[in-house]
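Below is one such record:
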Amino acid sequence: MTTSVSRFLLAALLTVVAATAVRAQPTTARFRGIVEWAEADRIQIRRPGGSTLTLRMNPRTRVFAVTEAALRNIKPESYVSVLAASGPEPRRAKAVTLYSPSERGFEAGTQPWDTDPGATLTAGWVADLKGGRPLRLTLGYGGGQSSFEIPAGTPVTAIAPGEKALLEPGAAVTLFAQSGPDGALSVGTIAAGRQGAVPSF
């Protein structure tokens, strides 16, 4: 077998292996809505458009409690995520979430988010905090920083480890589900509102 043919076959094999790896890589989808009912291994939500969606849960599904908070709860040592509109910095915040110490590091960095066209979610440690109206906040994360203006009245919530008892009818939730190689969706993480709170991401 000639060297050129060998190289061609090797390149073709690597392409097939890479394509298989991409297909096998699980993808994460987010679903938001109101709990209709929840069982040990399934949950059904009513989505904002009115349709219902039933997803599987498993023993590793994690539930987090979302409660209402306030801008004054943001401290220099806080780990925070900011949902913001597109635009130049400082970007205008649309919602803010504070994380318990055990969840610091969640989604660190900035990435497109699917709540609105052009929306981003940025999570990191408070690098700078200036009071006033609006409050000015800079978040630091591996590789960079992002700054925001947070107007008075911006929704602020806090998130901490919770339990499946929070998944009662009427609770607002955001589900983070993964699609496996067979296309089936399994919920890995659930953020559930407590006492009427609504997850902001």
